[in-house]
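User: Can you help me understand a structure? I only have the sequence.
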Amino acid sequence: QVNLVESGGGVVQAGGSLTLSCAASGNIFSINDMGWYRQAPGKQRESVATITVANRTNYEDSVKDRFTISRDNAKNTVTLLMNNLKPEDTAVYYCTAEDYKWRRYWGQGTQVTVSS
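Assistant: Let's start by predicting it. Here is the structure, written out as tokens:
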């Protein structure tokens, strides 16, 4: 079992920045990929950014060049730096981790609201 706890959401004006952090605990040695998903009202949950244990990253097209994902394997954390935020980035952001058996774990979610 892996437990994930997010922090860092909030309200920001368009063009501003926020940093989301996620701390993993439990069976951390089983974790391979980590990442961030988001879900806006009335929409499906979508992948925003992912990072492998070897620090290979992948981004959803709309956030490329604005968001940066990183992880600290020693501290069992993953961070999402979000710059130049847009109103369409408003959503609940979820930290996720996948273990070596391809089981996916989710955090409780943190709200990000971008005002225009």
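Now, to help you interpret it: The two ends are 40 Å apart (CA to CA). Residues 87 and 114 are 5 Å apart (CA to CA). Let me know which part you'd like to focus on.
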